[in-house]
From TrEMBL:
It comes from the Bacteria. The keyword Transmembrane helix applies. Belongs to the YggT family. Coiled coil: none annotated. It comes from Caballeronia sordidicola. The lineage of its organism: Bacteria, Pseudomonadati, Pseudomonadota, Betaproteobacteria, Burkholderiales. The keyword Transmembrane helix applies. PANTHER family: PROTEIN COFACTOR ASSEMBLY OF COMPLEX C SUBUNIT B CCB3, CHLOROPLASTIC-RELATED, YLMG HOMOLOG PROTEIN 2, CHLOROPLASTIC. This is Integral membrane protein YggT. Keywords: Membrane, Transmembrane, Transmembrane helix. GO terms for cellular component: membrane. The chain crosses the membrane at residues 65-88, 100-129, 162-183.
Length: 190
């Protein structure tokens, strides 16, 4: 029972933190204004890790490498803690290191895909419940790079935008593939 609780807490904490790091990188790609309350909250939550890394890894045009590397480092710590909670001897981590690093990369990909899903769901809900919400321009700006190509392919049906549903389905399929890949790698010790 302790193991399940520990895994749940680790998963919750690291997923939220990893999502914040990826959101920080994503906000730079879409050129989100820094004075936005959401931007400020994300920056404050992640500055302690990103700013020291930024001295080593400066941003290149629109890519915030420090935030991406920070998300990877958070995923490495997360995966190692999960393995330790599972009862693996710490001395046994060294031979598992290549697998753990690959699983950490897959974990970052899962965090990014989940972030896309949650942003899309939140945007769709707010567009139905409160389209005049101050969060709508922010959510629209964050989801536009994913939804605009789908909107060009998928016609509007009676004024209803189905592109968020299609994006949700595509990302869910990608999550299934990534999850299967992670399970396969850990089961067979790739």
């Amino acid at each position: 029972m302790f193991g399940e609780i520990a895994r749940f807490l680790l998963n919750t904490i690291f997923t939220l933190f990893g999502a914040a790091l990826l959101l920080r990188a994503w906000m730079q790609v879409v050129r989100m204004p820094p004075y936005n309350p959401v931007s400020n909250a994300v920056m404050q939550a992640t500055n302690w890790l990103v700013l020291p890394l930024r001295k080593i890894l400066p941003a290149a045009k629109t890519i915030d490498w420090a935030s991406i590397v920070a998300a990877f480092l958070a995923a490495v710590v997360f995966v190692i803690l999960l393995v330790l909670v599972a009862g693996v001897d710490p001395a046994g981590l060294v031979p598992m290191l290549p697998t753990l690093l690959l699983v950490a990369v897959i974990t970052v990909i899962k965090w990014a895909l989940n972030l896309i899903i949650w942003m899309t769901i939140l945007m769709a809900l707010l567009s139905w419940l409160n389209p005049q919400s101050p969060a709508m321009p922010l959510l629209y700006q964050l989801t536009a790079p994913f939804l605009e190509p789908l909107r060009r392919v998928l016609p509007r049906m009676g004024g209803i935008d189905l592109s968020p549903i299609l994006l949700f389905v595509i990302v869910q399929v990608l999550l299934m593939v990534v999850t299967r890949l992670a399970v396969t790698m850990t089961m067979f010790g790739v």
